[in-house]
Protein 1
Amino acid sequence: MGGRYSAHLSATRETGPILKPSALISEFVENGFVTMPSSLEAGVHSGLYESTKHLFRSMRDGFNPHNNVLPMLPALWDVLDDPQLQSALRAIVGDHYLIHPHRHPHITPPTPDRTAPGMMQHFHKDGHAMKPRPRHREPWWLILFYYPQAVTLNNGPTGVLPCTHVLPELMRGDPDGIPEIKKQGDDLILDQNFFQRRVSPITCPAGTMALCHFDVGHGAMLNVSEEYRWAIKFVVMRTERPTIDKPLNIPTDNPVSHHLVSWLGHNAGEALTHLPIGDWLLAIEGDDSRARVNALYASGVVDDQISVRDVLMKEVHAYTLDEDTIRVLDCADACNGLALLDDKSPIEQLMNSDHYAVQANGCFAAGQSGESSFANRLIPLVNHDHPFVQRHAMSALGMLAGGDQRDAAMTALADVAHRNEDWDRRLFAVQALIRLGRTPDLIDILKPVARDPNTYVQSFAIEQLCRIDDPAAREAVLEPLRRQRWMDDPRYHATPGRW
C-alpha cells in the first residue's frame, strides 16, 4: 500500500518540515532508525491520543485490540496517508510498499513510584507476527512507530540501541533480563555485556513517527508519570528490489552501510578494493561482533577468494537450526558473505545438499545474491518436505521476483497458496507472489486466496488485488472486502489458541 485515499484532507498541513532523502537514508542505514515529524495538524494527534485512551478504558483490563486498532481508530489512516511519511517510506522501502495487516498498540503503564530513566522491558529484536521470517540487513521490512502524545524521558520512551540492526545479537549472556541503565553526563549507558552500550530514547513531540529497521534492538522504558503512554506499531513490507532513476550521493566508509546504500541504488562513494586474507580472518574469527560483520561485507575484495569461500562454507555447514525453539528463520551469517562473492557456485552446492539446514541456508544465500538464475533450483524446493527449506525457498523466489523463471515460480507458489494446510506457508507463498509484480496474470491465482480462512493470508491477497490496475482485480475483491470487517482473533474463539 503506497498510499490510500483519505476523506480527511483538511488534516494535512503543507508547511511541515521535509527531511532530505539523502540525510534520511544515511541516518537509517547507519543508526537503524530515524524519527520524523508529521505534517498533520496538532489537533489530529491530540484527538488520536484521547481516542486511544477512551478505547482502552472501554475494554476490560489487559485487553489489547492488536490488529483491529485500525478499524477501531480509523483516524490512524490520516497518519498513514501523510504525504511526508509516504515520501520517507518510499525512500527506504520503495514506491510500492505495503502496510502489513499486523498492527499493535504498545502501552507503557504509569508507575509513578519508580525512578526514570530505567527499562520496563528487555532489549530485543522483533520477530514477525506469530510465525518466523528470515532476517535481512537490506530493508525488506520496516517497523513504524507512531506517538500520538509528546514523549519525555519520564513517560516511557522507546529505548533504541543504535547501529544494532546489523548485529546478529545484542549482547553476551541472558538477553531476557531487564538491564540497568546508568547516566554518564547526558548519555544513558548499559553494562559491558551489550555490544552497543549507549541507549537512544525516542523523546519527541506529539505526532512523531519513528522508522525503524526491523532488526534494530529496542525496548520500552519506564513510565514514571501518571498517564499511559501509547505508541501504535505498524509493519511495512518492501515488494520489489530497488530501481532508482536518479541516485543520490550518500558516501560512507563503513562496509555494511556501503553495501546497504549501494543496494538501495545510490552512490555510496569509493568502496574498499582490497583486504588481506590475514586481516579478514582476524576479524571473522575474533570476538568483536561488529568487526566480524564488517569483514563479512568485505568478503568480495579479500585477496584470497578460495580461502574466503572455504571458511564461509565451513561456517554454513556447521550451523544448526533448532526446530523446537526457533522464532526467526535463522541462517548462518556467512551466507551474506557468500552472496557477495563473484563465484556463486558454492550457493548452488548448498541448495543441492541432502541436509535441510544446509539447503535452507543455500536458499537464503540465493535470495541475498540477487542472481535470477537461481530460480531454476529454488522452484523445486518450494515443495520440499522440510518447512524450513520450503519457507526459505519461497522467500528467496519472491526477492528474486521469480528470477528468470517467473511463470514456473508463479505456478509453484500458487500451488502452496491454494493447497498447503499450514496457513503460514500459504502466507509465505502469497507474499512471494506479491513480489512477482502487480500484473493481471496474478488475478486468477489471488482470487481464491482472498477468501482464505486465515485473515493474514486473505488480507495480503486482497491488498495485492487492489493494487492491480484491472477491472477483474477490483471485482475480485468486492465480496471478500464486504465480509472482512475485522481481523480474526483467537481470543474471540470458543477454544482460544494461536493463529
Protein 2
Amino acid sequence: MAPTHYDVIIIGAGMSGLAAAIRLAYFERKVLVLERHYAAGGLNSYYALGGYQFDVGLHAMTNYVPPGTRGAPLTKLCRQLRLRPEDFALVPQYQSEIRFPGIMLRFNNDFECFIQEVIEHFPAQKDNFLRLVRCIRDYDELDLEAKPISGRQVVSSYLTDPLLIDMLFCPLMIYGNAAERDMEFGQFVVMFKSIFCEGLARPREGVRRIINVLRRKVREVGGTVRMKCGVKALHVKDGRARSVELDNGEALTADTILSSAGYVETLRLCDDCEPEPLAPLAGRLSFVEIISILDAPLKHLGHDTTIVFYNTAKAFHYEVPKDLVDPRSGVICCPDNFLYDKPLPKSMIRMTCLANFDGWSGLPEAEYVAAKAEWLPRIHREVLQFVPDFRDRIVFTDFFTPRTIKQWTGHLNGAVYGMPGKIKTGRTHLENLFICGNDQGFLGIVGAMLSGISMANLHVLKK
C-alpha cells in the first residue's frame, strides 16, 4: 500500500519541483512530487501534434557557461544535484540579435563581444555602460531580503540614451519579467547576467532532454513522482497545512509542502483563504507562440541567427496589449541555429509575441479559431522584417495562446512569469507551506532549478 505521509510533498513536476525533489531525496527525505498533467516540465515541456514533436517554453537555456566555470549558476546547479554538465548535453548558440528600427546589437556567449557592440553603436554611452556593468557584477541578486527597486530607475541613473535602455530591457523582459513597463532591478540583474554575461544554449533533443535527466535522477535517489495527480485542496488548521486533498479524493500528509504552482494559485488551494482578494496579485503578462515546421533550415535561406529579439515601434512597449496580440515586439527563435554537430531531424521557426489573456479566453470556439487565422499573417508581416520569407517552406504550424497556457499550467491569466511581486524567501502565511519556481523569483530554467534547490535547502535541510 502506498504511504500517505511524507517528509515533503512538492506540488508540480516543473523544473523547480523536480530539482527540489532531487536535493531533498539525496538527504534521505521521503519526497513525493504531485503533477496534475501527463507530462512533466510545467512551463517548459513538450508535446506531439500532427506527427511532429514540439517544445513549449524553452527557446534556449540561459546561464550557459563552459563546463568547469567556477561560481556560475549552472556549475552550482550541477554540484547541488550531483549532475555532470554533459548530462544536459547543452550546445551553445551561434549568435543572437536585438533589432530595433535602424539599429542592431549582436551578442553571443562571449560577453566582451556584447560590450564592444554597445560601445560601437552607442559611443557616447561607453563610460556609463561600463559603470552599469560594474554595478551589475557587484550586485547580490541572491539576497532574499533585498528591498525591490525599479530597474528602469537604476539603469537610467547610469545610461542617458533611451534607445539603449530599451534595447537592453527588451530581451530581459521578454525572457523573464512578470511586471508591465518596468522590471525589478534584482530581476534585471539576474536576466542580464544569464543572457549577456553567461549565454544561451540548447540540448539537441530540446527540453525533453533536461526533463528526462531530472526525472531519472529523482528515481535514482529514491523520490516519487505521481503524474495525472492534481491537488484539489490544502486543508489548514492552527497555522499549518495539515493535509493535501487530491482530485481523486485521496488525502496525504507531509511535514513540509513546497509548491511550484504559483503563489496565488497555491494560496487559492488553502481552505483558509478567500480566492477573490488574491486575484489582483496574479500576473497578467502572457504570450502567443507560433511554431512552424519547415522543409529546410532557415540557414538555406541565408539566416543563421539563433534568436532575434525585435521591436518595430518607436519605443518598446512591454504591457498587456489592448488587442489580442501586440506583434510590434517579440522573439524569433530558430532552433536549427545552435552549434550542433549534425542537423536537427526537423527544421522549425518559433515566433512569440505579447498577448491579451482576457481577449483570447473570452472567445467562443469558432471565433477563437478565426482569430488565430487572422493574427498569423499579421505576426508574419512583422517577423519578415528580420528573417527571409519562409512561408512557402512551411509544412505544419501550431499556434497556442494564453488560453492554452492556462489550461496546461494552471497559471491565472496564462501568466508565463507568474506574479510581479516575487516572494524571494518562499514563505507563505502557513509555517510549513513554501513557494518555489517563478513566484519565488529565480527565473529561466537554471533559475527555476536553483529556486527549488534553494528553497529545499532553506526551509527543509537547514532546519
Protein 3
Amino acid sequence: MGIPTIETVKEALTFRSSWRRPPVASVASDAAAASFDALTIKLDYLDPAEVRRVRDAYRFADEAHLGQYRASGEPYITHPIAVAGLCADWKLDAQAIMAALMHDAMEDCGITKAELIERFGAPTAELVDGLTKLDKLQFSTREESQAESFRKMLLAMARDVRVILIKLADRLHNMRTMESMSADKRVRIASETLDIYAPIAHRLGLNQTYRQLQELAFQYLRPWRHETLSKALLKARGNRRDVVERIQGDVEKSFAQAKLKVQVFGREKTLFSIYRKMREKHLTFAQVSDIFGFRIVVSTLPECYLALGVLHQLYKPLPGRFKDYIAIPKANGYQSLHTTLVSPLGTAVEFQIRTEPMHAVAEKGIAAHWMYKTKNSGATNAQEAQRLGAMWLQSLIDIQDETRDATEFLEHVKIDLFPDAVYVFTPKSKILALPRGATPVDFAYAIHSDVGDHCVAAKVNGEPVALRTELRSGDVVDIVIAPGARPNPGWLNFVRTGRARSKIRHHLKTMEQEESQDLGLKMLAQALRAEGMEMPLDDASGALAPVWQPLLRWSGNRSRDELLTDIAVGRKIASIVAKRLSRLLTERGVRPDAVTLTMGRYGADEAPSQGMVLIDGSEGASVQLAACCRPIPGDSILGYLGRGEGLLVHTAECSVGKRLLGRDSEGWLKVDWAEQPTRSFETGVSLLLKNGKGVLAEVAASVAAAEADITHIDMGDQAASENAELKLLLVVRDRLHLADVIRTLKRSAAVLRVSRIKP
C-alpha cells in the first residue's frame, strides 16, 4: 500500500462521502427513515411481496452506508433513496428499484457481487455491477478511468437498458445537490453531464430528464449567463402574459367550435435552449421569438391531423415550418406534429400535436414503456423498451468491437450523440435517420460496413454528388461501390457518425499494420543476410515453431506479425533481432552461407535487392518521404528508422538528413528505388518571375505542357515589385520528368530563374 496523495485525500473528502458525523445522529437516521417512507408511497404499483424485497434492499444499503455522510452533512443513504424515488416515478420494476438503492454499495462499501447474488439474485446484482465505476483498477489519467468506466456502463446498458435509466436518475440527483461541492468539481461534473449524459437522455427519449440535466449543467457552467437570462425570461413572461392568455383562449374556443376534445398545455423554452439558439444564430434575447409554445394532446391518431386543420384555419402557418414526426418518428421513438403559426400580434408560436401515449413517450422516452402497464402487458412493455434502447445501443457495440482505446471510444460516442437528425431514403424506400450534417459516406456505413469500405461515388436524387455533400431530409441516396476500393483517410475530415469514423479508423489501422509487417519482413531479411542466412519461411507443418517461439519470448511480442511491425516502426532494431534469430537457426543446424554473408555485408552496392529496402511508392504509412527534401525516383536516398515513427526517406545530400546521421548513425538503412514506381511523387521548385498580368497562368500552362501537376502555390507575403518569387509543389514521375518540367519553364519569357528546392 502506497502513501495516499493530497489529490486522493481531497477526492475522498469532497466527492463521495465525507466521514464526518453530525452532532445528533438520531436526527439524521430519522430523516433517512422519513425519506424511505416517502419512497414507499410511490411504490403502490408494485406487489406487496416486491415492496418487501425493496425494503430488504433498503435495510442492506442502510447498513452498508452506515457512518457515511454526503458533503452537505446528510446521511449518504438519502442519495440512493432519492435515486430510487426517481426510478419509481418512471414505474420501473422492483429489481431496478433495489439496484438503485444499492447502486453505490459495491463501489463505496466493499460489498462484493457474490454477496449481492446470494442475497438478492443475479439480475439485481448485474444491474448494480453495471453501475459500478472501475476505480479499483490503475489508470494513468482521470480521463482514461472515466472513459473505461463509461465503456463498461454502456456494455451493461446494451444487455439491460435499466442500467442507463438508473444511472441517469443518479446523475440527475447529483446535479440537483452539488451546492456543497468545490467549484472546480461542479464545473467538471456539469461539463461531463452536458457532453454525455444529457445527449444520452435525449437519444433514449427521456426529454424531461434531458431538459433538467441541461438546465442544471448550464447553471453551474455559466452561472452569470444563467442568472441574466433567468431575469430576462421572468420579465418577458410578465410582458407577454396577455399575449399567451389570448392565444390560448382563441385555441380553446376554436377546438370547442370544432367539437374536438383536446388538452391545451403552455410550453416555455428552457434557458439553455434559448442560450444555445442565441449563440448559434447570433441573436439577442429580444430576437428569440418562439420562447412560448403550446402542446395539444388529443385522444386518437386521426384527431392529430384534424387538430392541425383547426389550427391552420385559426392562424396562418409559416411556410417550411411544418414537421410530421408521426409518419416518420425520430430515432428515439418521438412522435408529434410540429407547426409554427403567426398570431394576430405578429409573433411566431409553435404548436406540438400528439396523442396521450405519444405524449408519455415524448416526456419519458423508453421509460414510458414501464408506465401505465397492466398485469398482462408488463413483460411486453419491458421488452419493447429494451428493443427501442437496443436500436441505438447496437451501433455503440459495433464501435466498441473495433475501438480498443477507451478514450477513442468515448470520442466516437460523443460524435454519435447528435440530437438533430435528417431522414433519408435508400433506393428501395427504406428510411434511415442520420445526424445533421451527415454525408453519403455516413449513409454507406449505416447500411453496412462493406458498403462503406468499398464506396467510390454517390447519387442523391438521381444526380451524382461529391462524397462530402451534406444530406437533407427526403434525399434518396444511392451508393456506387467497387470491389477493389478502400476507405480514404480524407473521409475522416467530414464524416459525422461515430460508426463511420470508427470503421474508417479500424480499416486504416489494419492497412497500416499489413504494410508495416511487409516492411519489417524486408528489413529483418536484409539484416539476416548480413549474418549469412536467408529468412526462414512459415510452413504448414509448424516445423519452424521452435525457432519463432523462443524469439518471441525473447522480444516480448505476442506474435510474429507484431514483432515485424515493431521492427518496421523502429521499436525493435532489425540487426539485433537478426543476430538472435541466426543464433536460434544455428542451434537448429542451419549454417551461414559464405556467398550470402559476403553479399549481405559488402555487396549491397552491386546487388541492391540483396542488401536494400526497395521503395516503389506503395508502402503507405509505414514509409514516409521527408518533407524537407522531398525525394523522387532517381535521387540517391537513405532511410532513417526513427523510434516508433517508421522509415523516413531523405535524399543523400539533404542537410537535415546529414544532421540526423551525425546524431544517430545506427538508425540509418540502405534504401533504393524500385525499377518501376507505382505512382508519381511531390517535389518543390522555386521560380523568380517578372511580375505582370497573366504570369501565373503562363506558368501553369508550362507545367501542364510538361505533363506535370501543381498541388500547391506559395507566393509568400512579399510586397508587389518588379520581380516576384514563387514556390510550387509539383507532382512528377522521376528526376528526368522534373528536368523536362524545368526546361519547359525556362522557355517562358516571364521566368527569370527556376531551380529545385533543397534544404
